[in-house]
Write a structure and sequence with these properties.
It is built from nine helices and seven strands, in the order αββααβααβαβαβαβα. It is an alpha/beta fold.
Length: 218
C-alpha cells in the first residue's frame, strides 16, 4: 500500500456510505457525543493525534470529520495487524482509507514520504502516537514519529481525546458494547519553530500529549 494512494470515485462513494451507516450506529448504540467541532480542519493538510483505546478509535474520528476532507484523510494503521492478510488489508484500505505504518521501529522512508505528502497539502492524517492501544485506559507516552512528521512545518496538529471506546470495545473483544463514547477535539497546534532533530521530535510529541491530557472531560 502506498502513502500516495488515492481513494478513487468508487472508493469515495463506498467510504461515504460506510460512514453514514457507522455514524448512525455510534449515535444510537454508543450515544456518541463530539465536543470541539469548531477545531476540526476544513482543508488539508493536518494531523489529528489521539489517545488509543480501541479499534473503534479511527472510525470514530473519521466520522466526526467534515465530508469534504474525510475522503482525503488517512488513519495510520499497524502494518503487522491490519495489512498482514489480503482480506483485512482490503477492509482497512477501503472503508477506513488507512495507510500502513511499521510499528516496530518506524522506517524513516515511510515518515519522509508521509511528510512530503502532507507538505504538498493534499491529505490529512489520523495517528495514535502511543503506538498501541492502552490496556489500562491510562494515556501512555507519545512517540517521536509525530514530531518527525511536523517539526519545522506549518502543518497543524489537532489534539483529540477519546473516552469510553476502551470500555465499548477493549483489546481482545471483537464486538462493541453499548457504552457511551465521547470525543473531544482541541485547538490546533503548530510547530514551525521546533527543531527538526530527535530531541525536537520528542518535544513535539510531549507537547501534544499534554494537550490531549488537558482535554479530559470533568
Amino acid at each position: 500500500m502506498s502513502p500516495c494512494r488515492e481513494p478513487g470515485v468508487l472508493g469515495s462513494l463506498a467510504a461515504d456510505a460506510w460512514c453514514f451507516v457507522v455514524r448512525g450506529w455510534f449515535r444510537a448504540f454508543n450515544r456518541l457525543r463530539v465536543h470541539g467541532r469548531e477545531y476540526l480542519p476544513r482543508s488539508t493538510p493536518f494531523v489529528i493525534a489521539a489517545n488509543h483505546l480501541s479499534h473503534l478509535d479511527a472510525p470514530l474520528i473519521l466520522n466526526a470529520l467534515p465530508g469534504q476532507i474525510r475522503c482525503r484523510t488517512h488513519p495510520l494503521a499497524a502494518r503487522d495487524t491490519f495489512f498482514r492478510s489480503p482480506v483485512v488489508a482490503r477492509l482497512a484500505a477501503g472503508p477506513l482509507n488507512a495507510l500502513p505504518i511499521s510499528r516496530a521501529g518506524v522506517a524513516r522512508h515511510e515518515i519522509s514520504v508521509l511528510r512530503d505528502r502532507l507538505n504538498s497539502g493534499t491529505m490529512g492524517l489520523v495517528l495514535f502516537p502511543e503506538g498501541t492501544r492502552s490496556r489500562t485506559g491510562e494515556l501512555g507516552a507519545f512517540r517521536g514519529g509525530l514530531g518527525m512528521l511536523v517539526c519545522g512545518t506549518e502543518i497543524p496538529v489537532v489534539p483529540c481525546r477519546i473516552e469510553g471506546a476502551g470500555r465499548a470495545m477493549p483489546p481482545g473483544k471483537r464486538l462493541p458494547r453499548p457504552v457511551s463514547i465521547e470525543i473531544t477535539f482541541g485547538q490546533p497546534m503548530c510547530f514551525r519553530d521546533a527543531t527538526d532533530c530527535k530531541a525536537g521530535w520528542q518535544t513535539v510529541a510531549d507537547h501534544v500529549r499534554d494537550a490531549v491530557v488537558a482535554l479530559a472531560r470533568t
